[in-house]
Amino acid sequence: MTASTLDVPAPTGTVGEPVLEIENLSVDYGYTDDATHVLRDVSLTLHRGEVLGLAGESGCGKSTLAYAATRLLPPPGLITSGSVHFTGRDGQRTDVLRQSDAELRASRWQDTAIVFQGAMNSLNPVYRIGRQIADGILAHRPGMRRKEAWDQAASLLEMVGINADRLRDFPHQLSGGMRQRVMIAMALALDPQVLIMDEPTTALDVVMQRQIVEEIADLRERLGFSVVFITHDVSLLIEIADRIAIMYAGDIVEDAGAQDVYRRPRHPYSAALLHSFPPLRGERRELTGIPGSPPDMQKMPPGCPFAPRCAHVTDVCRQVRPVLGPTALADRGGREAERSVACHLHDADLEGIDGTLPADLAR
């Protein structure tokens, strides 16, 4: 789906205080001295009621960030530093990385739920849909009667647009879009405050993608949960996200409002992503794509990791790694002051950089 090619307004969800705060999170794959550093001091904040889009090419660390933040990272993944703080409805702030196993089990699906990548194939093929949803509810509500759990499962299905009669169906009797909706219903069963969706529309056609995105937006408005929507398709986020964070090679390189990223990208990688799909309206333009390939995470180049592929690279880019922070335009105030970018082009104080932006980054 190419929602970003349409002239759509920014989402209008009410955004409150931080509900999930990831601070300086680093992750390695491997336990020896030659371990691969796949996340490097990543910081990201999700606010209450917000839809945060997380975008970037395959292999940039999006799923790793989500699984590390929820302590679902499989071996040989290892969190080497950082913290993940969750703030409950009662205002209590908890470091997820320091919870005991019992505390973590109690908080999952109740505080934070996740719809995994390839969720359509996550259902058990030999159990009926209703039983799988009800069993998940009973695992966290041991005092609940099974009939009550089934009734709740029926309500959840209807909430995501599936008739309750399908409770007795097996997964193979449902279409791909319906199986995806079942997984969303299951994730919302315990009224979580944060819903993490990892590539939830990848295997769906464009019509079903739109239906799923609209369903998520509607449920967010009705239930008030926060969403982290992970995808490699930036265009998919423009219509649903309040804010977009762009990842590249294990780093956040730009973090800004969705419409600001779409209309005024400040990082060359963000601009290149947006020029990689055709517009549906306006003048025709050539699709440029992004030359080269993402860097080898075991052999990261010095300086900016995007420098070998960047059309605006300078000598300092090849030597000094940029730090995510305000741009040289932040003194203009307004929404520009809320943007963070990791790019030397936007650091007016750095020797050799005068703060003058290339035309495609200065709109």
From TrEMBL:
Cross-referenced InterPro entries: AAA+_ATPase, ABC_Ni/Peptide_Import, ABC_transporter-like_ATP-bd, ABC_transporter-like_CS, Oligopep_ABC_C, P-loop_NTPase
Topology versus the membrane: Peripheral membrane protein
Protein name: ABC transporter ATP-binding protein
PANTHER family in the cross-refs: DIPEPTIDE TRANSPORT ATP-BINDING PROTEIN DPPD, OLIGOPEPTIDE TRANSPORT ATP-BINDING PROTEIN APPD
Residue ranges occupied by any ABC transporter domain in the UniProt entry: 20-274
Keywords, in A-Z order: ATP-binding, Cell membrane, Membrane, Nucleotide-binding, Transport
Pfam families according to UniProt: ABC_tran, oligo_HPY
Similarity comment: Belongs to the ABC transporter superfamily.
GO MF term (any one): ATP binding
Compartment(s) of residence: Cell membrane
Naturally occurring in which organism (per UniProt): Isoptericola chiayiensis
Predominant cellular place of this UniProt entry's protein: membrane
Alphabetized SMART domains for the sequence: AAA (SM00382)
